[in-house]
UniProtKB/TrEMBL annotation:
InterPro entries: FAD-bd, FAD/NAD-bd_sf, RIFMO-like. This is 2-polyprenyl-6-methoxyphenol hydroxylase-like FAD-dependent oxidoreductase. Its cofactor is FAD. It comes from Sphingopyxis panaciterrulae. Residues 10-357 form the FAD-binding domain.
């Protein structure tokens, strides 16, 4: 009788797509000692940058990967971050949100890293180089043409676009990061929900914008007309050199007849003279996939959530997916992850997608004044009054877009099967306010240690049991023994700092490899039982229904937080 042979794998993980999210999966896995293969059909050159604003949370991940300093170099720290609402760059100003410069912006006390700008043409090469340094195998100019989940592995047909040769590759896990029009998602029959907002053209420009707008430069000019906002122009590097103009259309624009110079004259000034470098059509949408996983295939980034760029949450949310997946894949590859560990990815991340899409949509709505603005361009004292009133309203309404630390740091895996609730209610989740908490499911809070490191610098490699107790806590040895028996990497960090102990609220706190709190308390429970929950071996019941409720909460914001904690 023939015996079934386990297939020889080319890699434990293959990543499809080398955009910011696929690259984040590659670098996180490689940082964890894995050797994933990444397949990308492009050559890596970013001709037309999209993502460029990276949240404090993403910067914290980049810090762990060793590239935060590098990413900080590619935006002029002295360029004004002003957001100006106007009728055109040279036309009437409605109001300006004055946000200082990056250099003047202090790092918030709740994080070791502040929000940063770095356009994709600089960001992607930095993260790609780091992934290679750490051991990831990046195959550019290769295209995945077919895939099949065989139950115990995934088989891929991959074409080398340089030689036309087709290879068959086998992997234990496929992570599809193939963007908003995800072919993998469609092939798997995974549906989406959400709405498509408007058609957009992104026009990359070179030349002088600032000179047309008076003395004060702005990072972004948001341009309104009598029918509402119709264009915005953003500096790419914090220099008066390369700019991206986004134009909105109700109907799909015809590129053959579209005249970018006419749009430039209207949006900037009748005498503006800018070079058009490239034009990228895109669709402003808010879309979330019904599932983030199908068997051995996981989907991340725009493949499972597309959101309007207002707030710059798209790539950041996808990078969060990557970090949630990295340690879970490591755990199952190394044999210490439980059967339910990978399934927890969708349970944890899909509600965050709803939450962030909701915030992006709210930011988008804030650009459209609620009142009638048909007289906004009128040259009269009444027109001037309307402009001033509308401008003030726009600056106030758009405040959460420029101040989104709550969105970046305040997300939590509220009903995760891997986190043990401690009975405390979650703090209010607000876009511009972050309330540090070491409640299970939340990001373990930052504080500076006396040796100059951040608390966050302690996390990443395996689980960390933080001990704030002044004497050796009972049960720690049993926990370490239970973890060792199950090959779960764990270590103890004793912190003798009263302020940090107060921040974490309990003498013992167990932090996961992605920096989220799994458990906290004054006394360790059954050691084996706890380790089996946090490694996804024991499945806690009713996860599905609670997640659906949480999802609803994220969408509608009307379910009381206390019910969610139940
Ligand atoms: C105007 C604009 C501004 C934005 N600004 C921001 C911002 O400031 N901050 C932010 O966080 N987000 C921003 N976003 C959103 C951000 O660009 C996306 O969320 C992000 O690019 C998604 O990354 P991804 O890796 O999931 O997908 P993508 O960047 O779309 O990458 C997918 C990759 O998969 C590859 N691929 C697809 N199919 C195959 C195949 N069969 N074989 C091989 N390779 C394949 C593609 O070539 C591509 O490189 C912005 C978006 C727009 C439109």
């Amino acid at each position: 009788m023939a015996t079934e042979q386990a297939p020889t794998l080319d890699a434990d993980v293959i990543i499809l797509g080398g955009g910011p999210v696929g690259l984040a999966v590659a670098v996180d896995l490689a940082w964890r000692g894995q050797r994933p293969i990444l397949i990308e059909r492009g050559d890596g050159e970013v001709v037309h940058p999209r993502a460029g604003g990276f949240t404090a949370r993403t910067m914290e991940h980049l810090r762990r990967w060793g590239i935060a300093d590098e990413v900080r170099k590619y935006f002029n720290p002295d360029f004004p971050l002003n957001q100006r609402f106007c009728l055109s760059v040279s036309g009437h100003e409605l109001a300006t949100a004055r946000l200082g410069t990056l250099r003047e912006t202090p790092t918030p006390p709740e994080t070791p890293e502040k929000h940063q700008r770095c356009r994709q043409m600089y960001y992607d090469p930095i993260i790609r180089k780091r992934a290679i340094e750490l051991g990831a195998d990046l195959r550019m100019r290769h295209s995945v043409e077919a895939f099949a989940d065989k139950g115990d592995h995934v088989e891929l047909q991959v074409r080398n676009l340089e030689t036309d040769e087709v290879l068959t590759l086998r992997t234990a896990w496929l992570v599809a990061c193939d963007g908003g029009r995800s072919w993998v998602r469609d092939e798997l029959g995974i549906g989406v929900q959400g709405n498509r907002l408007n058609h957009s053209l992104s026009v990359l420009l070179e030349g002088d914008i600032v000179g047309h707008g008076g003395e004060e430069a702005a990072e972004r000019y948001i341009i309104l007309g009598p029918k509402g906002p119709w264009a915005n122009i953003t500096t790419m590097e914090g220099e008066n050199r390369q700019w991206r103009m986004n134009l909105r259309f109700d109907e799909e624009p015809d590129l053959a007849t579209f005249d970018p110079q006419e749009a430039i004259r209207r949006a900037v000034s009748p005498d503006a003279d800018l070079k058009v470098l490239s034009i990228l059509p895109w669709r402003r949408s808010n879309i979330i996939a019904d599932h983030f996983q199908s068997g051995r295939i996981l989907l991340a980034g725009d493949a499972v959530h597309v959101m309007t760029p207002t707030g710059g949450f798209g790539a950041n949310t996808g990078i969060g997916d990557a970090v949630d997946l990295g340690w879970k894949l490591q755990a199952v590859i190394e044999g210490w992850g439980g059967d339910a560990l990978i399934d927890s990815y969708e349970v944890e991340r899909r509600p965050i997608a709803f939450r962030n899409v909701f915030e992006a949509e709210r930011n988008h709505k804030a650009w459209s004044p609620a009142e009638d603005i048909s007289r906004i361009a009128e040259e009269s004292p009444e027109g001037e009054r309307i402009r001033r009133r509308i401008g003030e309203g726009l600056v106030e309404a758009s405040y959460p877009e420029w101040n989104s630390i709550g969105v970046a740091l305040g997300y939590a895996y509220l009903n995760s099967p891997l986190c043990v609730p401690d009975g405390t209610p979650p703090p209010a989740d607000e876009p511009s306010v972050y309330r540090p908490t070491a409640r299970p499911g939340h990001r373990a809070p930052h504080a500076w240690l006396s040796d100059g490191r951040s608390m966050l610098d302690l996390f990443g490699n395996g689980f960390v049991l933080l001990s704030f107790a002044d004497k050796e806590a009972e049960g720690v040895d049993a926990l370490l023994a239970a973890a060792a028996e199950r090959k779960v990497p764990i270590r103890v960090e004793c912190i003798a700092d009263g302020n940090i102990a107060a921040l974490y609220e309990q003498p013992l706190v167990l932090v996961r490899p992605d920096g989220h709190v799994a458990w906290r308390g004054s006394q360790l429970p059954d050691a084996g039982g706890l380790i089996d929950i946090v490694r996804g071996k024991t499945v806690t019941p009713q996860v599905r229904t609670q997640v659906e409720r949480q999802t609803y909460y994220a969408q509608a914001r009307r379910e009381p937080a206390s019910e969610l904690a139940a």
